[in-house]
Amino acid sequence: MAGPIINDATVKTKERKITIDPVTRLEGHGKIEIFLDEKGEVSNAYMQIPELRGFERFCIGRHVQELPVLTNRLCGVCPAAHHIASTKALDAVFSAEPTATAKKLRELFYMGQYTHSHIAHFYALAAPDFVLGPSAPSNKRNVLGVVDAVGVPIGAEVIKHRSIGQKVQEIIGGRATHPVFGLPGGVSKQISEEERAQMEEMAKSCVEFGKFTIKLFHDVVLANKDYLGLILNQDAYYLETYYMGMVDKNNKSQFYDGDVRVVDQKGKQVVKFKPSEYLDVIAEHVEPWTYMKMPYLKSVGWKGFVDGASSGIYRVGPLGRINVCEGYTTPLAQAEYEAFRKTMRDLGVTGPVHHTLAYHWARVIELQYATERMLELAKDKSITSDDTRGPWNPPKEGVGICEAPRGTLIHHYASDKDGLCTKINMIVATTNNYAAMNTSVKQAAKALIHNGEVSQGLLNKVEMAFRCYDPCNSCGTHSLNGGPALQVTVRKADGSVAKTLRNF
Amino acid sequence: MAVRTIIVGVGNPVLSDDGVGIYVARMLTGRGIPGVSIEELPASGLELLDMVLDFDRAVIVDAIQTEGGTPGDHYIMQEGDFKRSVHGTSPHGFNIATALAMGRQVVPERMPKEIFFVAIEAEDIVNFHEGLTPKVSASLSAIADMIERDFIRRDG
Q1: In the listed set A321, A344, A369, which residue is the last one of a domain according to the structure?
Q2: Which residue range(s) make up the domain with A469?
């Protein structure tokens, strides 16, 4: 196959405002605006997102037990993650400890979600940049182009294993998308030995596909000096932030359950907290030009779109998780984690990896982990037990946290004595990353656009800065008052922002 | 052999008109028409691919917003048309054409010979609300009639 197209010719723009809209290959529309100064240098860059409205209001007054099936309607991209976080919030609301069987089934279901989601992101959203090159024509730079380049059989494998992820969710969750099985203290459905055996076979195939994906990443990305250069580019794709992610008691990465760990720019633990303590750790900043809030570490404070120890911006998702953990509990993922650490060490990086494009490497390691964990759980014959639900108590307030594929996902509900929802707060993964994403976009724009010279490839490289985070913005925004959110941005003739009008 | 037809209603049933495809699918299901599969899909495009494989004909019913469009109007489109259309803010909107194109590329023998889109002009696709806006709601039964006549019963 032809080599990837990494750079193309630049064209001098006469415009002072460059808009990338819609951002291609994202679930939901995003919009980046880049503002140039008199000299054609980047003065500012924003990533704006469309908002869906009124979700909190939609939920208030409903029975809290409806929330696992309602909150997963927030978005068609990661419904399973919402279902899990919501179900865990109900465990807390009803003081209901799930049975061992229920925990295993939930986690197995969730490994199906990860397998499905990480495959889709890597092959459909990330691979076009790496296999075809960030400057390949945009009509070729998609999953179809990837399949053309790597071969149809691989495309078939992608479809097959993504479908397996869905199938596992369907077997356990009742439906592949928008599952319905989570109950406080358990799950609604026992699985049969036949289903378990079927999942074991499917999981074996996924483990092999995970191996293949890691090899592909090595062959295509890491073996290419230009890409490695792009990944290691500290001007465009490098932020020294805090990181957040879930770990077990040995600080091994966890997706379904555990404590949430935060580390600093050097890798030192800042805090390790339980779901119920999240408000002690996280505060939310509001910017006038977007409805999406920007969470930051309360103990550090908000300093704007800058990185460093004095800025409370943290990152979640694959890079966040790999930076807070001390490895994985499964052998293949652990081996690749060690390879990742060694490569970075050889390049002089000893602490957390701050290179934004390393998200993609972390994601393929996580795909391997999810498939191995899926196999471990599917092999466990005790998951067919009928002990799928534990006792529960009168409802109160509760918080549930899981790691969505895109990062830490928090659901917080309060209930009255009849089980009706009186309060709901959610911090979704994309929201957790929103401040960092904007910082990354601004940094990449500043590094890649000079003297008013832009090209399609350059613009795509700016997009790459946040595509790593795999944002799914449709559920990232919610207006608390539920009212219509209107915002008009007025810009001066010289391209800078004059003022922002808003109704909130 | 009978033409194997699937109708897929796409959308989010709690996001106002975004869910119109789901409502059409439910209406058709309620009619108990024999020999057709009717599914709801509240998700993005790659899931759609799983659903339509091994059918002869797929009809995908979804919301759309066009500039100056009249809510409740509908447009019949095919794969080529869809690639050029601009979908609304719904998260599933982006991927459908790509997913189907990937199916044609990777598993062409399992893809439906005919894929039609019934795109229904939506008024509100950003406010969470269970139910459709009045004009879109009023168009439902005529659209379901059309689908039944032109796509389900066409080949007897």
Answers
A1: A321
A2: 11-50+435-502
Tell me the CB-side half-sphere exposure of residue A40, using CA atoms within 13 A: 12
Q: Chain B residues with CB inside 8 Å of A80's CB?
A: none
Is the Cβ pair A73, B50 closer than 8 Å?
no
Minimal Cβ distance to B89: which of A50, A55, A166: A50
- Helix H, strand E, coil C: the string for A163-222 is HHHHHHHHHHHCCCCCCCCEECCEECCCCCHHHHHHHHHHHHHHHHHHHHHHHHHHHHHH
Residue A274 is predicted with a pLDDT of 98
Letter string b/e over residues B112-146, b meaning 16 or more CB atoms within 10 A of that residue's CB: beebbbbbbbbbbbbbbbeebbeebeebbeebbee
The pLDDT confidence band at residue A282, using thresholds 50, 70 and 90, is: very high
Token pair 């409805």 is found at A291
Percent of chain B with pLDDT over 70: 87
Q: How much of chain A, in percent, has pLDDT values that exceed 70?
A: 85
When pLDDT is averaged across residues A352-359 and rounded to a whole number, the result is: 94
Whether A187 maps to a domain, the answer reads no
In this structure, what are the phi and psi dihedrals at residue A33, rounded to the nearest 5 degrees? -120, 135
Name residues whose C-beta falls within 8 Å of residue A454's C-beta, 6 or more positions apart in sequence: A10, A11, A13, A18
> Domain end: A321, A337, A369, which one?
A321
pLDDT tens, residue by residue, A371-424: 999 999 999 999 999 999 999 999 999 999 999 999 999 999 999 999 999 999
Q: Does A21 touch chain B (CB under 8 A)?
A: no
pLDDT at A183 over 60: yes
Using a CB-CB distance cutoff of 8 angstroms, which residues of chain A are in contact with residue B106? 147, 152, 155-156, 158-159
- Which CATH number belongs to the domain containing residue B103 in this structure? 3.40.50.1450
Q: What are the tokens at A26?
A: 């994202």
In the predicted structure, residue A120 carries a pLDDT above the cut 60? yes
Q: How many structural domains comprise chain A?
A: 2
Q: Identify residue B83 by its one-letter amino acid code.
A: K
Is residue A253 in some structural domain?
yes
Give the residue with greater pLDDT, A490 vs B116.
B116
Contacting residues for B34 by C-beta, under 8 A, at least 6 apart:
none
Tell me if A285 is assigned to some domain. Answer: yes
User: What is the structure's pLDDT at A56?
Assistant: 83
Average pLDDT over residues A196-224: 95
Torsion angle defined by CA atoms of residues B128, A169, B60 and B146, in that order, rounded to the nearest 10 degrees: -80
Instruction: Give B41's contacts in chain A (Cβ within 8 Å).
Output: 177
The SS3 of residue A369 is helix
Strands A182-183 and A186-187: antiparallel
Range(s) of the domain holding residue B137: 5-152
* ipTM, two decimals: 0.79
End-to-end CA distance of chain A: 53
Longest dimension (CA), chain A: 70
Q: Flag whether residue A148 sits within 8 Å of chain B, measured between CB atoms.
A: yes
Whole-number mean pLDDT of chain A? 85
Check A58 against B91: CB less than 8 A apart: no
Distance of CA B100 to the CA centre of its chain: 13
Number of domains in chain B: 1
Tell me if A27 and B95 make a contact (CB, 8 A cut-off).
yes
How do residues A226-252 score in pLDDT, each as one tens digit? 888 888 888 889 999 999 999 999 999
Q: Counting one residue from A and one from B, how many pairs have CB atoms under 8 Å apart?
A: 98
Task: Answer yes or no: is A172 within a domain.
Answer: no
- End-to-end CA gap in chain B: 11
The more confidently predicted of residues A44 and B5 is B5
Question: Cα(A244)–Cα(A259) distance, rounded to whole angstroms?
Answer: 10
